[in-house]
Amino acid sequence: MIMLKAVILIGGPQKGTRFRPLSLDIPKPLFPVAGLPLIQHHIEACIALKELKEILLIGFYPAALIQQFVNDLQHRYNVTIRYLQEFTALGTAGGLYHFRDQIRYGNPDAFFVMNGDVCADFPLDELYQFHKKLNNPLVTIMGTEATRQQSLHYGCMVTNKNTHEVTHYVEKPSSYVSTLINCGIYVFSLDIFHTIGDVFSTKQQDCYRNGNSSREAGYIQLEQEILAPLTGTGKLFALQVTKWWSQLKTAGSAIYANRHYLELYRIKHPERLRQPNNSGEDCSIYPDVHIDPTAQIHNSAVIGPNVSIGSGVVIGPGVRIRESIILSDAVINDRSLILHSIIGRNSRIGTWARVEGTPSDPDPNKAFAKMENPPLFNNDGRLNPSITILGCSVSVPAETILLNSIVLPNKELSRSIKNEIIL
Question: What is the pTM of this model?
């Protein structure tokens, strides 16, 4: 009988700095996208596989920040989920090697590894079936196509068209290699630990000779130190998929991911979407919209498309919201307008206020274009236009305008702002 496991790599507090201010009060892996914590989408994809018996989360967040989430999901899905806390950042392969005994326990036939910051319509069964048909592979990578220019920001692969073997791999190359990129989703055979162990031993000897800390030996990068050397050995393969995939690197990419997960709900979880109701008793809905059952929304409000509204949110008469995420316990007062924005927990938007950002969607005119994750500032020091983000407990006065701005938590604004970061 086949037994599978999954490992989700969630990083730690010093990661996700580009996701601020949203990651200041909630760990990035738990940020709600389409009404669910980010990595819950990974977990739901895993439990859809009946052979999958255990999910391990590996990262260096303090356990107190993650454990309640793990307990809740174990209870909900009736599957074993455990959080394994690294003592320090160990890199993408170092964490796997450090917890190799927990991963190997029960002798699974194979295990998935998924980066916690990717969003996708995860084709895990297709990936595993592909892996199983290969001749004794160590790693199968899920790949997708990007534009030539965007491919430079990812791990690029060259494959044999007939066998799907990866013959060349470069992480974030300085010049064009291939438009086939690594999605950060893998199937591993257990023998991979011999390969990682050899790298670990070599690094340990180097550290001993050079008088460095042995902790440095434990830091192993999967892409550069494991995958790249495996190319051309007949052990590394890639499956190219065409389903939706994106990374959640910046806060702006959360709106894009939110839209796609809402779209997937239409097929997989229609019960999570608020359906339009023409009775006049409910607010006006333009699909796709997710609204938590505890939210209170006036029947004259107009919501959607592509909006997620969290628990305890209160939305007043005449409010218009589209392409936005409203986090728990926020209050949006009468006749406010929210466009391309994320409103933090406990924030208050005054009457007749306008909060608007600029979408940073992939270029629709370029085939295979991925979500751009531009830096906060452009070359001349000005803020790049992007979605507007309010951290938690921000107060916006009535009749003010916020445009392309970022407001850190616990701020009480007194004026309209445009293209500013309020620290």
Answer: 0.93
